[in-house]
Design goal:
Elements (H helix, E strand, L loop, with lengths): L1 E7 L6 H8 L2 H4 L2 E7 L6 H6 L5 E5 L2 H8 L4 E8 L11 E6 H5 L13 E4 L6 H12 L8 E4 L2 H9 L5 E5 L2 H7 L3 E6 H4 L6 E6 L9 H22 L3 H11 L5 H6 L13 H13 L15 H10 L7
Parallel strand pairs: 1-2, 6-7, 6-8
Antiparallel strand pairs: 3-10, 4-10, 5-8, 5-9
Helix pairs in contact: 1-10, 1-11, 10-14
Length: 319
Amino acid sequence: MVTLKVGYLPVATWAPLFLAQDRGYFQEVGLEVEASPFGNYATQVPLLAQGQLHVAGCANAVICYNAFGRGLDIRIVTDLQSAGQTEKSRGASGLVVRKDLWDNGTIRGAQDLVGRTLYTQAGPGSGQHAQAAHWLRRHGIDPSDMDWTQLQFPDLYAAMQNQGAEVGFQSEPFVTAGLTRGIHHLLVSAEEMEPNVQSTYVMYWTGIDGLGPQVGERFMVAWLRAVRDFLNAMEYGIDQDAVIAILTRETGIKDPEVHRQSKYPWRHPNGGVDADALQADADLFAELGLMGQVDVRPRIDDRYHQFAARYLGEYQPPR
């Protein structure tokens, strides 16, 4: 049994990890996964590069792109969350505005954000910053005309309840929790801001292959099994109650009905990553002067998800 150290965020995006753990998929392929929660992806990158973590996530964000530019020992291996492809998966994350400010007409569009603070999971240079910057520029607004401040999803949820924040990025299950409880309004979804967004992805430490025979491939087989279980549950209702019970246990929202009503985070059931979308965001950050030019494509290693898709067979929707 090989021990793998995995970093994650306690949100629905990481449902495949929770499911694979709960259903014994990792154990079936000879892996013992030690999973540790983090507040954001920025803190995971140096630990992954040093081999203190073996698997972690990152985003279409400056800190991740800079890590690639420095040639750190990390590589992108599969989709974690990308643009929703169905009605049930579009809108799983986006920019929300406090409900009273929406109701009274204070904030109704991009032009109303000038001079305000936009809260993001990882501050300026984050993937959410990229999404909003694309959207703002299409509306003729300079992204530097607002303040980009870091605030994690649960803290933003609480701050809006207490009227301590006006507008910021949220992800499920907090999006639906805020909508159903009258805390915020969804101003614009991630897909509306950036239609082909590759929000997050799973990364491996480059030393993972030295931990044992085909460790990276084995992890990916278990991961993609769970990816498909999650998709089948949330899109087609297969074994949905059991999946929602796991989400209720593992995320910050403890109301199963919120999870039932939530949009679910989409990821490719065969594991592919949108290299063009990642490169477009890297180019945007370079243009905004937040980082130098970085070529993302050499940092993408497709062989693990390709192996898993061959092993499991191409995904087929349930009949």
